Every structure is written in structure tokens, then in C-alpha cells.
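Homework help thread (please don't just give me the answer)

Our assignment gives two proteins as sequence + C-alpha cell strings and asks us to describe the second one. The first is just a warm-up. Here they are:
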Amino acid sequence: MDYQDLVAAISEARAETSIWIEGRKAFRRRGAQAINPYGLRSLEYQLWQEGFGYERHRISDISPLN
């Protein structure tokens, strides 16, 4: 992997992480009512859903009702 490939990979990872974090924040702000803004078959949709699901499960694990 040369320098340019590394820069591109880091940039892509940042973008993917950012979308995943958007999903987490959406759950915190709107809960289950949050709507994924990305196209259904896109990588971005999946990343957002994973972040959303992670936060939903994280919150339910620390809920005093469990």
C-alpha cells in the first residue's frame, strides 16, 4: 500500500465512522422513530443502521428496567 492508498483508506474509514455515529446520535435524539436518510441498498444505509442498532442495544443494556 502506497501513501495515496493509505490516505484514501483513512478518508473512507472516517466517512464510514461518521455515518455510523450519525445512526447512534439519531437513536439518542429520536429513539425508534428516527428515519435512516440513506438509500435502502447503500453501504451508508447499512452503516447508519449498525450505529443505530448499537446505540439501541447499548441503551437497553444499561436501562434500570432490565
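The one we have to describe:
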Amino acid sequence: MSDIRVPKVSYYYKPTSGYSPAEVVEVFNCTSLYIQVPTQEFDLQLNLFFQRDMTAEEKEEFGRKQTWRIFTCWGKLEQTHSEAGVSKEIIENLQCCKNDFTLSERVAA
């Protein structure tokens, strides 16, 4: 059982839709099992697939405000997490999600 007083980072997957690529939505200071994401066609409900405690660096950067960060490639997500002091064990656990939550690995030039 996790301690709800510890600030959390939650992860949600938005699949490819029309011209919009698949995304992992990372939400700081969030413990919800799902989030609502507005799109041009309709609102999507995205379900939680992973959750972790915030690092000291993230707590300093984001404080208590809810902040969303969007990733369209796993490589950028892993790089950002390494730079933010996320443990290797957590990054490895996230890497296990790659097969279930496909993202484009192309990065815009």
C-alpha cells in the first residue's frame, strides 16, 4: 500500500488517433485512476497504467501544482527521467510497459 501523502507521478496512455500520435501523459501531483483529455472529436478517458513517488528534484520543480508532461517517444521519457533523478529500478519498470503502450521512436529534427 502506498502512502498517499507522498507526492505521486501518474502515467496514462493515449493511443494514436487520426493525425495525433500515441502519447504517454505524465501527471505530477496526481493519484487519479483516470484523467479526461479533451480532443477535437470528443473527450477521452485515459486509464492509469503506472504510478511512482516524485523525486526530490521533481518536488522542487513542480511543488504541489498538478503539471502534465507529454511524451511521444520512450527514449525522451527515459532521458528526462534519468536527468530528474528517477531510480534505475523505476525506469526499468517503465521500460517493461513499452510492449503494451507503443510510441513512435522518431524524434522531430
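TA reply:
I won't write it for you, but here's a hint about the kind of observation we're looking for: The chain has three helices and five strands.
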